[in-house]
Amino acid sequence: MSSDDAQVLLNGIEGHLLISAAREEGRTAAARFSAPFDWLTQAQRVEVERRFEAEYVGLARTSWQRTAERSRELREEYEEAYRLLRQRLLAVCLLGSTLILGLFTTVTWKM
Fold first, then answer.
1. Are 20 and 50 a contacting pair, CB within 8 Å?
2. Count of alpha carbons within 13 Å of 56, Cβ hemisphere only?
C-alpha cells in the first residue's frame, strides 16, 4: 500500500468517525429537544427526533465544508505570501552580493 493509499484510507476512516459522532450528537440533542413534548405519540416523537438528527448532521456537514473551503483559501494566501517573501529575500541577497562584489572590486583596483 502506497503512502497516498494509506492517507486516503485514513481520511475515509476519519470522515466515517466524524459523521458517526455527529449523528450521535444529533440523536442526543433530538432526545433533549423532544423530551418536554410529552403530548407527542411515540411515532411522532421518533419522527421529530429523526428530522432533528438529519438537520443537525446536515448543518454539521455544511460547517465542515465551509471550514475546509476557508482552510484551502488560507493555504493559498499563505503560500502566495511565502513565495513573495522568498522572491524578496533572493533579490536582497543578489543585490547585497552585487554590492559587496562591486565594493571589493573597487577597493582592489585602487590598490
1. no
2. 21
The 10s digit of each residue's pLDDT in 74-93 is: 999 999 999 999 999 999 99
**Structure pTM?**
0.66
Model pLDDT, residue 2: 80
Positions of the chain with pLDDT lower than 50, given as ranges: none
**What length does the chain have?**
111
Whole-angstrom distance between the N-terminal and C-terminal Cα of the chain? 67
Which is nearest to 63 in space by CA: 34, 27, 26? 26
> HSE on the CB side for 55, CA within 13 Å?
9
Chain position carrying cell 476512516: 13
